[in-house]
């Protein structure tokens, strides 16, 4: 009994001693500078009163002792547009922050700003003050004023009057925004249109969508996540769907990051000087539609940059239609796919004549064996012309057409000669060709005369280079 009592007392004395020892840990003033996982936090472009995602910075104690950081604070204090959380506590200023030796702590940063104009820079600093000196981490974001279009059960989100969007506010779309029948939406130069996840735009029968960018003020249409990470990721939004009888005019526009880009259903589209890239399925998905495109640049689409179904009437002049992807390697990644067939929403197969598909002074290339694939229904019209263009071609069995000895449909074109793009994997998709590219000076001047300037305004009337860039 005495032994058990002695053991019991010894146990609690040990617990008490350990507890006292823990409480007596001493934290010294830092004698060295701290180090950080990054010295600048670049937040997403954010919109008026919309909270950003949360960003993390790790603060490291490289000393062989426990330290007490005297002060961590936002330079602008309570007036800052930013909020920080230091080791689990939110605020603007923190004193005597402990940090164990060779350990780290997290600082979480977010911003939920009030916009003061169309676009402004929000900048602040997280200041670390100690005897070792003052250090800081810079916080940086672009803040945009925004106009919201939100579809709800009681708000179908339909434009029922002719509407003009200007660049004074970004346009943020939640759900679907519909341009009503026989209504025109004009989007002016420099306007930015952002789609939330699973959102898109629909243009009803007879509706007109005019996207009027300029070379110096492109119209941007993308997902609403602006972190550079999302510049090369698809499926951030759905598509722009044009109903039968609707009309699209698109100039100097950058459209990217969704499931389908332009979803055309028996509609007419005129596309000039534009970039369409990074879509999970198709950049252009055209069903029995008419598409006329000049100076078009495309890349990084899962199934095909252009998908032509149920025929239609198509012309692509001085287009650079590439398809290279580091993230969608398991998909087909064609440049152009064309067929007479189309499965409707009921699963039934419909047929249509391909009245014309012209590929003129263009580059259609990918990292697949064939950049173009035709699937013709024998009883249907399938009229195509590949003239003065460069394509990837492995053979008729995979491409669905004959390249050699086909003088009526393949004229003065080249196959399997790498166009030598400057860089096809960057976010900006630099699909200019190098000085020694086989695409140099291979265009027909008569075709170039119909599109006398390239996508950046350079004249191409003599010695035209294939594709969108001279």
UniProtKB/TrEMBL annotation:
UniProt keyword annotation of Signal present: yes
Cited InterPro entries: Pectin_lyase_fold/virulence
Keywords: Signal
Signal peptide segment: 1-21
Protein name in the entry: Right-handed parallel beta-helix repeat-containing protein
Protein species of origin: Chryseobacterium edaphi
Lineage: Bacteria, Pseudomonadati, Bacteroidota, Flavobacteriia, Flavobacteriales
């Amino acid at each position: 009994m005495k032994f058990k009592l002695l053991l019991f007392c010894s146990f609690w004395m040990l617990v008490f001693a350990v507890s006292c020892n823990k409480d007596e840990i001493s934290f010294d003033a830092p004698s060295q500078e701290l180090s950080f996982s990054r010295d600048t936090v670049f937040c997403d472009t954010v919109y008026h009163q919309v909270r950003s995602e949360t960003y993390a910075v790790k603060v490291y104690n490289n000393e062989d002792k426990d330290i007490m950081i005297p002060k961590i604070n936002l330079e602008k204090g309570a007036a800052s547009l930013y909020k920080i959380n230091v080791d689990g506590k939110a605020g603007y200023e923190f004193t005597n922050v402990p940090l164990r030796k060779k350990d780290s702590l997290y600082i979480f940063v977010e911003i939920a700003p009030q916009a003061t104009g169309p676009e402004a820079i929000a900048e602040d600093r997280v200041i670390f003050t100690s005897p070792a000196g003052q250090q800081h981490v810079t916080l940086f974001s672009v803040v945009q004023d925004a106009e919201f279009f939100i579809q709800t059960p009681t708000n179908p989100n339909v434009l029922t009057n002719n509407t003009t969007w200007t660049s004074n506010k970004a346009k943020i779309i939640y759900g679907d925004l519909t341009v009503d029948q026989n209504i025109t939406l004009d989007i002016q130069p420099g306007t930015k249109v952002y789609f939330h996840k699973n959102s898109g735009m629909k243009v009803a029968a007879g509706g007109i969508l005019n996207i009027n960018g300029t070379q110096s003020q492109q119209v941007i249409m993308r997902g609403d996540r602006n972190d550079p990470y999302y510049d090369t990721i698809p499926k951030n939004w759905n598509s722009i769907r044009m109903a039968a009888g609707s009309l699209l005019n698109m100039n100097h526009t950058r459209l990217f990051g969704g499931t389908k880009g332009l979803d055309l259903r028996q509609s007419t589209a005129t596309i000039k000087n534009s970039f369409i890239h990074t879509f999970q399925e198709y950049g252009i998905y055209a069903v029995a539609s008419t598409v006329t495109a000049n100076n078009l640049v495309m890349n990084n689409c899962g199934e095909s940059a252009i998908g032509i179904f149920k025929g239609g009437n198509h012309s692509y002049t001085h287009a650079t239609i590439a398809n290279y992807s580091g993230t969608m390697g398991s998909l087909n990644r064609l440049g152009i796919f064309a067929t007479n067939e189309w499965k409707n929403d009921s699963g039934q197969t419909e047929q249509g004549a391909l009245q014309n598909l012209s590929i003129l002074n263009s580059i259609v290339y990918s990292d697949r064996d064939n950049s173009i694939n035709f699937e013709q229904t024998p009883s249907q019209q399938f009229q195509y012309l590949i003239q003065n263009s460069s394509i990837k071609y492995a053979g008729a069995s995979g491409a669905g057409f004959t390249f050699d000895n086909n003088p009526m449909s393949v004229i003065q074109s080249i196959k399997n000669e790498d166009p030598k793009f400057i860089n096809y994997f960057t976010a900006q998709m630099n699909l200019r060709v190098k000085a020694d590219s086989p695409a140099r000076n291979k265009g027909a001047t008569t075709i170039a005369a119909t599109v006398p300037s390239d996508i950046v305004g350079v004249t191409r009337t003599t010695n035209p280079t294939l594709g969108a860039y001279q």
